[in-house]
Amino acid sequence: MGALQRAKGARLEREAAAALTGAFGCLFERSARNGVDGAIDLETHPPLDGYAVEVKGRRAIAIIRWLEKLEGDTGKPGLVIMREDRGGWCVLLRLPTLERLYHRRHPHGTDQPEFD
Question: Tens digits of per-residue pLDDT, 5-17?
Fold first, then answer.
């Protein structure tokens, strides 16, 4: 990986950490072992301690078109649930939507979220 790619990745990780910290009111920061195989991009701290966060940035991400279409058709925040054949379910939603769902369940932001 070239220096420009590493710099872009570090910038995106800092932006994601700031966005998540703002959304949940707890600290997200770049992992000290970032770039090491098997290491996570962002470390979480209580009350979200224990979740692995991977940050990805691309010029275009095709799957986001599903979310955009849903939101355009309904005029509402979208949540796309999907799975591969014989695979587990995965959810795609925007960070503000996740933030609203989290704060609806945890109005003071102090309880451990029940994402499991």
Answer: 889 999 999 999 9
Q: What angle do CA 14, 111, 92 make, to 5 degrees?
A: 50
Its domain, for residue 4, covers 1-57
Residues 72 and 99 in one domain: yes
pLDDT tens digit sequence for 30-79: 987 766 777 889 998 887 788 889 999 999 999 999 999 999 999 999 99
**Residues 39 and 6 reside in one and the same domain:** yes
3-state SS string for 53-115: ECCCCCCCCCCHHHHHHHHHHHCCCCEEEECCCCCCCEEEECHHHHHHHHHHHCCCCCCCCCC
Which candidate, 66, 54, 62, places its Cα nearest to that of 20? 54
pTM of the entire structure? 0.80
List the structure tokens of 18: 């700031």
